[in-house]
Amino acid sequence: MEVCIFQTGEPLHIDKGNYRPMRCMLLADYLIENGHKVKIISSAFFHQRKIHRTRKFKIYVISENLSIFLIPSIGYTKHISLRRVLDHLILALNLSLFLKINKDFCPEKLFIGYPPILSTFVMAFWCKKNNIPYMLDVKDKWPEIFLEPFSKNIKAIVRIFLEPYYLCSRYIFKNANQITSITDEYINWIKNTYKDNKNQRKYFVSPLIRKPLSLNNIQNKIATNFWGKQNINVLKTKYFCFIGSYSKSFDFDFIYKSAELLIKKYPKVKFIICGSGDQYEKVKNKFQNSPNVFVFGEINKYNAKILIKYALATLAPYLNNPNFRDHIPNKIIESLENNTPFITTVEGKLKSIIDEFENGIFIKNKKSIDLSAYEKLILDSEHQQYLSINAGNSYKKLFNYKKTFQKIIKIIETM
Is the pLDDT of residue 100 over 90? Predict the structure, then answer.
């Protein structure tokens, strides 16, 4: 069977660097292992690094079972910007052009990553026209989340301008043969938003789990030495870490306030922040006078694993909005995979996981942060170990890589 995966914003097999594969690459590899052929359609613009893989339509033939089709767009530098809106519009137009020109492009099934909305709409419309079944993989609450920054009075006006996005998304969800998303809460949001409670078998949960990463002795030593060269002894230093994107999805003020308060009593405890994104310079400047905070750029998957593995806890200061309250981000799963508890400020799904499994710490993000939870991790090794054991156990109970992808593939095969 030939399956097409449409997914933007993720690493691809052609990208250089030790990126940890996400949904697109993992699903493609798993499909091929199960005897299927895969064609990936993605953006020529690499969202994570904000660079163009190419500026024109291009096909990469990786093997007889895997091909990658890149669709050009203008690109952007900021996560939230008018240029990104324009980029997504041009990507959708070019995708439509690609499908119109390539008459012989005719996979048997499609797996479509949502968002972006406009490109997803193009794919959904093309599938409907050609009687090709598609599965929708929902990772964010677009376009609803666009309204979040605005006050109640302005939201109604903004909502009018967003109506084209709502029309497109309704068409996408209505015509999908199967819909999967990251949590039960997201599934419920889809059903309630798009008034579809009849076909329960249409929906299923598939967490944003990645293939477990193991390091051999050489990789472990290289990664440990990497941090040693940054004057950080991961084996002996007590630290908290953040690995993610420098974007407006995170509240770096929370980390700043935490570091500022902790240095007074625990000057040797460090905060290590790593990532890439349009807010990098702003974050770097924010912490330039914080001696207990180390700010780094992008690191590879091996250095990230070592950093997470030996941390007292990882930091997950996502914005406390509806998008993240129902979310289990892959960074949380990655922390639990490494038996490391996480600290979050987000109510909802993450807080409920902490309440049930005692695998992390919820700290209310307010003007005066309660440091007692931090202090207990720093001073009480038994407590930290208890949370770490629970983190590992909850990972095994909640997230199973093989079962997740086997289920996706089985449903693709039968839809």
Answer: yes
Positive or negative, the CA dihedral 312, 318, 321, 327 is negative
* Max Cα–Cα distance, the chain, nearest Å: 67
Q: HSE-up of 106 (CA within 13 Å, CB side)?
A: 5
Q: Give the Cα separation of 87 and 75 in Å (integer).
A: 6
And the tokens for 340?
């490391």
Count Cβ atoms within 10 A of the Cβ of residue 23 and give its class: 0-12 exposed, 13-18 middle, 19 or more buried.
Answer: buried
State how far Cα 147 lies from the chain centre.
21
Q: Say how far apart CA 270 and CA 292 lie, in whole Å.
A: 5
Q: Is the pLDDT of residue 319 over 90?
A: no
Strand partners, 360: 342
d(CA 19, CA 13): 10
Q: Is 144 exposed, middle or buried (0-12, 13-18, 19+ CB in 10 A)?
A: middle
Beta-strand (E) ranges in 163-267?
178-181, 203-205, 239-245
Rounded to an integer, the average pLDDT of 29-35 is 96
Mean pLDDT across the stretch 174-179?
96
Between CA 34 and CA 219 the distance in angstroms is 29
Please spell the DSSP secondary structure of 244-291, one letter per residue: EE-STTB-HHHHHHHHHHHHHH-TT-EEEEEEESTTHHHHHHHTTT-T
* Helical axes 152-161 vs 163-175, angle rounded to 10°: 70
As to burial, measured by CB atoms within 10 angstroms (0-12 exposed, 13-18 middle, 19+ buried), residue 370 is: exposed
Q: How far is CA 111 from CA 118, 133, 185, 412, in A?
A: 16, 9, 21, 8
Report the alpha-carbon distance of residue 8 to residue 55 in Å, rounded.
Answer: 15
Helix axis angle for 252-265 and 372-379, nearest 10°, is: 60
Strands 270-276 and 203-205 come out as unpaired
- pTM above the 0.70 mark? yes
Question: Where residue 195 falls among pLDDT bands split at 50, 70, 90?
Answer: confident
Tokens of 321: 């909005």
Contact predicate 45/57, CB 8 Å:
no
Q: What is the pLDDT of residues 323-357, one digit of tens each?
A: 889 999 999 999 999 999 999 999 999 999 999 99
Give dist(CA 50, CA 35) in Å, integer.
34
Q: What is the predicted pLDDT for the residue at 236?
A: 94
